[in-house]
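Recap from last week: sequence in, structure out.
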Amino acid sequence: MSETHDDIPEDMSDDMHERTRLLIGEEGLARLARAHVLVAGLGGVGGACAEALCRAGVGRLSLLDHDHFSASNLNRQLLATREVLGRGKAEVAAERLRSVREDVVLEVRAQFLQPDEADGLMAEGRFDAVADCIDSIACKAALIAACQRQGVPVFSSLGAGGRTDVSQVRVGRLDKVEGCGLGRELRKRLRRLEQSLRVPVIHSTEPARGALPHQASGTPDNPGRPRAINGTISYMPNLFGMMLAGELLTRLLSEPA
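Predicted structure tokens:
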């Protein structure tokens, strides 16, 4: 039998957190409300992650992405609709999250994170945790390294592209991941930076189907960096993002009061 508002006590019927409260309690909600989380990258993985964090009750979110929505995002990115094509991902993400929760505090950072800016970002932001949903390996490694140097918990997404089998998606650790090209290159970068490989990651054990050769992204006026184009399907990046949010929220809820 489906549930209706008749099943909900009158004093709870307008409370969006009622079901979350039943699961994690008032203290759990309070912990999330005090937290400040950076979501770096707001594509398929990051958009789903940011929305899950917002709906769970994280009090403050910093949203970082320089990119704009294009038609090729419509097949998989939760925030992409025809109405927002051409608009900035960080701005669109903020609008959507505000439509979910009026009380969420949002900081929009519509910028490309240069590797040499990562330490400054971490020092300035005073984040309680970071969700790394960045595509660029150099930027990804720099962000993780900055988090480690400053003692900020960081959770990273590896490659969701070129894969279709949800049963092979795993929560793991970067130094234990096998068969992921992005993970392999990320380990090389972190070793050069003399940083730990004990990074919690979402990854897939499914062999990836080959990507197209690197090609320019963006527009003629704003070409962007060359990138390899992977085939992607609607559910896989969103699954990675939701699992990443789950790991991050579990960590926030387990911190000492």
